[in-house]
Amino acid sequence: MYSIGKFSEICNIPVKTLRYYSDIGLLKPSYIDPVTNYRYYDYDKIQITEKIMLLKNCQFSLATIKEFIESTDQIQWKSMLEHKIDELEDQKEQISQQIEEMNRLKGQIEKEASIIPRPLISACSIENRKEILVYTIREKIKVKFIDQLAKNLFDRIYAFNLVITGKLMAIFHERDLNQEEADVELLIPIKDSNKIDGCRILASGTYACLTVKGPYSELYIGYEKLENWIMEQHLTQIGKKVEIYQKGLVPADFNIKEIRPDLNRHPSEFITKICVPVIKGNS
């Protein structure tokens, strides 16, 4: 006979499980030493254990397995096993269908990914930008509502009868990626307006720049490239990054009374310029 430890190794079942099976009467030891209480199993118990594990793998409950092991009614158990086989065949068919559907979906995703162009990133460069007068609006909002913030900006432009001289810009002063919120400032260059509230000067200076042609969701690729280039050139960022929406958010022939994203332009055709104020040398 085998000790419980050796029997555990032979059947690949934890000792703890064998003790539990013994406690519930499913698999009793062949012999228990009355002095040491050590449990021993003979060869016949290996065959019973194999049946238990097979039935368990077929999703039978332990109570049902116990009845099966103790029963001598072969007809009843042949019927039960046939019923379980039918159930498993049905599950097999369902799983096969699910695998087929997932492979089909995977193929669609791969096909769609192959036809979506990657953003086109320009070379990085240094620009000396002049100071400009801008009208701004700044709020802490969820980024998905930036279109509404742009509309509010242009409503004020229209109300104050301001003359626009450049492209819409944005500065993200603070951004919470987990909550998808940001402290956003939208800016638009304007002609002299007698310094009404909301106007400020966007300072001149040296900027590291590049352009991204593609959807706004891909701008991070441009940011990564520009940040790496700034490090390679031994430059130091000295202010907030500026996004300039050259094509995309606002149509070229927009009506400031009805500002909205340019729905006629495919996101792959959006052009955004990223500008980072820098100085020579590492901080």
Helix percent band: 25-40%
> What is the CATH topology of the largest domain?
Multidrug-efflux Transporter 1 Regulator Bmrr, Chain A
The CATH superfamily of the largest domain is known as Regulatory factor, effector binding domain
How much strand?
25-35%
Q: Provide mean pLDDT, rounded.
A: 86
- The secondary-structure class comes to alpha+beta
User: H/E order of the elements?
Assistant: EHHEEHHHEEEHEEEEHEEE
Major β-sheet annotation: 10 strands, antiparallel
- Alpha-carbon distance between the termini? 77 Å
Question: What is the annotated CATH architecture of the largest domain?
Answer: Alpha-Beta Barrel
**Strand tally, please?**
13
Low-pLDDT segments, ≥5 res: 254-261
Radius of gyration: 36 Å
Q: Class of the largest domain, according to the CATH hierarchy? A: Alpha Beta
What count of domains describes the coordinates?
Answer: 2
**Mass-distribution shape:** elongated
Helix count, per DSSP? 7
Overview of this structure, please?
Helix 3 crosses helix 4. This protein has 283 residues and is an alpha+beta fold. The N and C termini lie far apart (77 Å). Helix content is 39%, strand content 26%. The protein has two domains: 69 residues, Multidrug-efflux Transporter Regulator, Chain: A, Domain 2, CATH 1.10.1660; 161 residues, Regulatory factor, effector binding domain (Multidrug-efflux Transporter 1 Regulator Bmrr, Chain A, Alpha-Beta Barrel), CATH 3.20.80.10.
